Amino acid sequence: MTVMTKEPTQQGDSHGPDEDLDDELDHPFFADPAEVTAETYPKLRNISVGFMLNRVARALEPAPPDYVTLPLEGGLSDSAHLVAVAKWNLVWESAQFRRRYFEEDELPAEAAQIADQGDVNVTFVPRTATRYYEYAPLYHLLSQSQAERHHLPLVRTGIWPYTATMGQPDRYLPADFGARLGRAWASAIWRHLSPGSPLSAFSRSEPIRLLAHNLDFWIPPVTATMEEMLRGFPVSNDDAGEEPVQLNDGSILDGVIAASPRCGGTLWCGESWAAEVVEQVVEAADAGGRLRAIIDAMRSNRVEDDFSDRWSYAREDFERKLYHKRNKVRVRFVELTDTIPVQGPETEVEGNLVVGDFLALLDQRERQIVVLLRSGYTKVGEVASILGYKNHSPVSKYLARIRRKAAEHFDL
After folding, report:
1. Co-location of 384 and 292 in the same domain
2. Residue 225 predicted with pLDDT over 90
3. pLDDT tens for residues 15-54?
C-alpha cells in the first residue's frame, strides 16, 4: 500500500514546536482531560455503512488500500460531495469495487479522477500540512504517557475510516507533528523490534531505528490490522444471506458477493487493548516474514557507528561476533594460474635471495606452506592443522621437497 499526497493548496496555521496549546485545549479536537484514563484512552471506532446501505458488494480478495488526499477541509463546500466521500470510505468491504456505487458526477472532481482509473482500492482523507489523517490510526494507538512524553496533545476518540472533519487539525497540532509522532511511535514498537536493547543505545542513523520512525512504512500494516479486526464484526442482518452481484446489464460481477454490511463499533479502547493492537500491527508488518527479513539483514550489516555510547545487549552481541570473527579468521589462498612470474621492484628479496621466482617453481600446496612459514607459523603442527591434515607427516614431506627445489634453484 502506498500513501499518495499532494502539496496542500492552503495550509492551516500550525503551531510552532514550542508554542503552548493550553488556550486551545477546550476545542472538540482534544480529549476531555477528565475522561482520559488508562481504561478509556486511547480509543478508535468504526462507523457502519449500514445506516446508508442495506447491502454491500463485499470483495472476496480485497486489494490493499492506498490513501489519497483531497482538499476537503476548507476547500470543498458541496455537502453532497462530502457525503459521497464519507460513503466511499465507509464501504471499505468493497475494496477495489467501491467506485461502482457512484454516478459520474456524484464525487468531487479529484475523487472522480481516481474512480475513472478503474477498480482501484483507495481511502480518501483530507489534505493537511501535518498529514494528521493519514497517520491518525498510529496516533490513536499511543498511550497518554507516550503522547505526553513526546509533547503531543491528547485527542478525542478517532474514527476510521475518515467520514467527517475534526476541525482542521493543522490549527491545533505542532508544525513538526510528523517528527514527534515518529519518535512516539518508535518508542511504542521498539521492544518488538529490538528486545532487551533500548532505543537510546543506537545512533540516529541506525537502520532499524530509522525503520521504526518511518510512519509511511507502518501505515499499511496498521490498516491491514484494522480491516482484519472489522471483518470479525457481526453483520447488520444475519437473515439476508449472500448472493452474486448483478450489474445493470444483467451480468454477474466477478470477485464480489452481495451481503449485509458489517456493524460498526470499537476497534480498541484503553492502554492495554491498544498495546495488543500494536503487537498485531508488528505481526502484520511481518506477514510472510517480510519485517523479520528486513531486520535480520540490517542486523547482519551493522557497523560500529550504528551504536551510541550506551551499553546494550545488541552492542555486546555485535562486538562479540566481531572479535570472534577476527580471532577465528581462516587463511585462504588464491592461485593465478595464467600469470607469468616477473622479477621487479615488488619482488620479495630476503637475505639476497629472490623469493618471487622461487615460488613460481613450487606447486600450489608447496606455495601455501612457504607462505604460512613466512607469515609466522613456525611449527609444523600448526601448518598441518591450517591445511586440514590430521598430523604433521604430509607437511614434513612437502618441506623435504621444498628444500630440494630450493637447493637446486639457489645452487646451494
Report:
1. no
2. yes
3. 443 344 444 445 678 898 888 999 999 999 999 999 899 9
User: In 10 A of CB 95, how many CB atoms?
Assistant: 23
Is there a single domain that holds both residue 311 and residue 355?
A: no
Separation in Å, CA 390 to CA 376, 399, 404: 21, 17, 25
Indicate if 295 and 226 belong to the same structural domain: yes
Residue 4 inside a domain? The answer is: no
Q: Is residue 9 part of a domain?
A: no
- Does the pLDDT at position 169 exceed 80? yes
Mean pLDDT of 159-180: 89
d(CA 202, CA 402): 54
Residues 6+ apart with CB under 8 A from 409: 357, 358, 361
In contact, 255 and 61? CB cutoff 8 Å: yes
Contact 139, 101 (CB under 8 A): no
Whether residue 217 lies inside any domain: the answer is yes
380: containing domain: 349-409
